[in-house]
Design goal:
Elements lengths: L3 E2 L19 H7 L1 E2 L17 H12 L29 H4 L3 H36 L3 H28 L8 H12 L3 H26 L3 H28 L5 H21 L7 H6 L4 H11 L2 H7 L6 H11 L8 H5 L4 H6 L7 H25 L1
Parallel strand pairs: 1-2
Helix pairs in contact: 2-5, 2-8, 4-5, 4-6, 4-7, 5-8, 6-7, 7-8, 7-9, 7-13, 8-16
């Protein structure tokens, strides 16, 4: 069997609707693409615990476990709302010509696209956390990265199962997310991997997951979000611990490199993640020109609008700025750039609690309950 090698993010989605059919060599070649990463491995012969905070996260991750197949009731029926969400371009003529059923179907497809991007992001996180096992020098951090890889695999399984049960198959990865994941997974620099994934992407995900948890009508999706967020809260804390330990020890030039790179990533995500071009496959299906929709957005949305939206604590980009700010990756050098959108003095007053922490705490209580239940069953069985 030939293996297809690629230097870019795999983006093609192949539909094999008949699950019972065994995939042959040609099909496997279509869906499996191989990429190389420029990483060297690290052995650490000192097995003493260097950071008790990371060790605690590792132990909690082992104790508070959950199973995609057993701890979510996948048989619960999908609850569908008849509500048609308001969008910025309600007056865009081709959109106005859609009837109500078509508009609902349009937003159903947009939801499928959003969940698909979560799925692709989790696969990127899986690859990245696995690569951290090779390059982190602290043995405790290596152990935590290995445990995170297991948890990211669980998220991939959960999102894939949900998408397959609700929509049949995922949609392709968007250009912006795909390019960022490729950069992070292939980066030889540890800071890009930790700041990029553990702080930027995980922070963005926490905001997006919290929004879905609060507004979704589907009980299956709500439970999946809660459990995933419980894991992600630990991953985010791991990134924060690394930043607290590492960034103050860097020289000025190294700090500037990390700070500038993070600001550039934020700008790319802010202006491109919700760009209609990322969902052009959906717009085409409904006779909507994504370029015209983009023009409508440019006419409607200004920096003042973005700033107003980011006053909401659940706005994903406000969460992202707070994450960087609390990690010490926004300083006097770059604060003016972020201040265009977010009042940093307000963030100072908010404390360290992040959006989604309350949801993650509820998830922890659920995990304590089910793990204690399973422990009692095992004792009874003995």
């Amino acid at each position: 069997m030939k293996i297809q090698y690629t230097t870019e993010t795999p983006r093609k989605i192949r539909d094999y609707s008949e699950v019972e059919v065994k995939l042959g060599p040609n099909e496997v070649e279509d869906i499996a693409e191989i990429f190389s990463t420029p990483l060297s491995g690290t052995y650490n012969w000192d097995y003493t615990i260097q950071d008790n905070r990371i060790a605690k996260l590792y132990e909690l991750g082992k104790k508070l476990n959950w199973n995609v197949s057993l701890d979510i009731d996948w048989d619960r029926p999908l609850v569908v709302s008849d509500e048609i969400p308001a969008v910025f371009w309600d007056e865009y003529p081709p959109y106005k010509q859609l009837n109500d059923d078509e508009k609902r179907e349009f937003f159903r497809h947009r939801g499928a696209s959003q969940l698909s991007q979560f799925l692709h992001g989790e696969q990127g996180a899986l690859n990245l956390s696995a690569s951290l096992c090779h390059i982190l020098k602290d043995q405790g951090a290596q152990e935590y990265a290995a445990n995170q890889a297991r948890e990211e695999a669980r998220h991939v399984t959960g999102f894939a199962k949900y998408i397959n049960s609700r929509w049949g198959k995922p949609l392709p990865v968007g250009q912006t997310l795909g390019d960022l994941l490729s950069e992070l997974v292939n980066a030889p620099e540890v800071y890009k991997k930790i700041v990029g994934m553990q702080i930027l992407v995980e922070g963005l995900a926490m905001g997006a997951f919290a929004t879905i948890y609060q507004h979704s009508y589907d009980p299956v999706l709500v439970k999946l979000m809660q459990l995933v967020m419980t894991d992600e809260a630990f991953h985010h804390k791991f990134g924060k611990i690394w930043a607290d330990k590492t960034i103050p020890k860097l020289d000025e030039n190294e700090q500037n490199i990390i700070e500038d790179w993070a600001a550039n990533c934020f700008q790319i995500l802010l202006f491109n993640l919700v760009n209609p071009e990322q969902k052009k496959i959906i717009y085409d299906q409904f006779g909507l020109d994504w370029k015209q929709v983009l023009d409508e957005l440019h006419d409607i949305i200004t920096d003042d609008d973005r700033r107003e939206r980011m006053r909401e604590s659940t706005d994903i980009f406000r969460v992202l700025v707070k994450t960087l700010f609390k990690a010490g990756i926004i300083t006097d050098r770059t604060k003016d750039f972020y201040s265009v959108y977010v009042d940093l003095d307000e963030l100072k007053e908010e404390g360290d609690r992040m959006v989604g922490d309350d949801i993650a705490d509820e998830g922890l209580e659920f995990l304590k309950e089910i793990n204690f239940r399973d422990m009692r069953r095992n004792i009874a069985a003995e």
